[in-house]
Specification:
89 residues, mainly alpha, 3 helices, globular
Length: 89
């Protein structure tokens, strides 16, 4: 996997050891592509990406990492959705 694979919007399946940086490896290029194409902010009030995870814990980790790389709190919203709890924004 390279930065260009994600930045060029190619579908990926990624597997590696825990703690190897996979979440940041796909999350940062995704966010940077959306920033470069001005798809954040008031002009884009629609869904921009869907990330699938096999477990609740991984879904929450991905949400945490994506929230950590925001330039500011209102740049974009991240919502982790998983079974057994209501969806809240």
């Amino acid at each position: 996997m390279t930065f260009s694979n994600v930045y060029n919007r190619e579908d990926l399946i990624v597997r590696d050891l825990t703690g190897s940086g996979k979440t940041l490896g796909f999350g940062l290029p995704l966010v940077e592509w959306l920033r470069a194409n001005k798809l954040f902010g008031n002009a884009a009030q629609e869904l921009q990406a869907v990330l699938l995870a096999p477990t609740r814990e991984l879904a929450l980790q991905i949400a945490r990492v994506l929230n950590d790389i925001k330039h500011h709190d209102k740049e974009y919203s991240v919502l982790a959705v998983y079974g057994g709890v209501p969806m809240d924004n």
